[in-house]
Amino acid sequence: MLDAPGWARVGITAPSYWLREDAALELARVIADAVDAPANAPSSQQSILPL
Question: Structure pTM?
């Protein structure tokens, strides 16, 4: 959630329902992207060593 835009983190407490809904959808997108990201993907700077 820390990678989410500031407006989305603050927007979930907004008085207007449409802003809270937009903020919630943005937070959900950021969380879903983090879950879908491969955890052990090798970096382009990391060398692959033979076993």
Answer: 0.65
